[in-house]
Please model this.
Amino acid sequence: MIESASGAAANWAGNLTYGAREVLTPRTLDEARELVASAEKIKALGSRHSFNDVADSPGGVQLDLSGVSGSPSLDTRAATVTVGGSVRYGDLVAQLDEAGFALENLASLPHITVAGSVATGTHGSGERHPGLAAAVSALEVLTADGSLLTLTRGDADFAGVVVGVGALGAVTRLTLDLVPSFTVRQDVYDNLPWSAALTHFDEIQAAGYSVSLFTNWARDVVDQVWLKNRGPVEVPASLFGAVPADGPRHPAHAAGVPAGNTTAQLGAPGPWYDRLPHFRLGFTPSVGAELQTEYFVPRAAAPAALEALRGVGHRIAPLLLVSEIRTIAADDLWLSPSSARDSVAIHFTWLPRQPEVEALLPTLESTLAPFAPRPHWGKLFHGEALDLAYPRLADFRALAARLDPTGKFRNPFLDRHVFGS
Ligand SMILES: Cc1cc2nc3c(=O)[nH]c(=O)nc-3n(C[C@H](O)[C@H](O)[C@H](O)COP(=O)(O)OP(=O)(O)OC[C@H]3O[C@@H](n4cnc5c(N)ncnc54)[C@H](O)[C@@H]3O)c2cc1C
Model:
């Protein structure tokens, strides 16, 4: 029996009530296939952590695949795990660790589904690590006619399908590359002078397996640097003028947010899955009442792009909880925000004041325009001054026309930002 939750569903942040008529939860893969084949408008829904209408299907239905996800299947010889699309990273990681394996990287929160994260190009940090989608080595997609398409890395359309922004079908299963399990220590440094952050940007990024800078743009210092390092390793007594924090920190510490929901800091070693995310699974991640925006620019442009944003910092700060700056290695996935370029991602956690945030976004985008910014597909952006010149965008559009000829997976977000109509 297909479960139906009719009426208005909302996203995690509560800033969007979906225009879809209902959320359907099939109990078997065959039910899911029939649903997709017979639908006029349909969209796979993950854990609803996106801040815009990317997951909406106005007037149509949203498909919750949690009823057909099954259990993760570990292949220890190949060092891979195959999971249902609706599995959340947080539900998977302890089991991998017990078996001696790890994922190379994670996002700031473990609450999000694998398929939803991969579809939007979700990422963690670390100059050597691409986004989470780069760990996908195979996937199964339920396409518009109800058939299942399996693609493996190296297949012709594979690199187009992985970061699919929900436009190509519903991903039912994904196979992820694993690495041997590892431990991580997390250290926070306070008050990095902006001049040092810009001058020593490369050395700071090289100082950890994963590095995040947190700022509110309003002060002469970057409020915090978070270093996540593998194994029992010595960390510097100071970092280009920043000093070790004297207690646990929330990223939005400068806005007065306490550290209760964060993973352990102060150098205490722990498993990769309990240090790479900033936030713990059993708690509300981040702040809760918030909105988010993020732009990716080429890594080499980082200091100039950050300087440009500091110039409008006085307009950003009143609406901001905190900004995070991370680096991401290039991948070859067609619509990945770091497709074909090493990137720095500049993130904004906003106060929940959407009209004012939306009014400011064109200013941010024109400020970043000289650096060819790309948006995070799951966060708020305006769009006009953005670089949608992904090297394979035309191929992606052709692939979508082939897999979904009537556009049942298309929605207003995709029409605006991907299909240009
Ligand atoms: C507190 C917070 C912290 C965050 N931190 C980070 C971060 O550190 N790094 C980062 O990059 N992002 C971050 N994000 C953004 C988040 O990772 C993305 O919005 C991600 O897409 C959320 O996954 P989801 O499962 O909620 O997907 P949803 O929001 O439900 O859906 C997103 C898209 O994925 C598609 N989709 C979902 N399931 C499937 C499926 N089975 N098959 C095909 N398409 C599917 C949907 O159709 C939609 O297009 C954060 C968000 C929040 C709320």
About this structure: The longest helix spans residues 354-368.
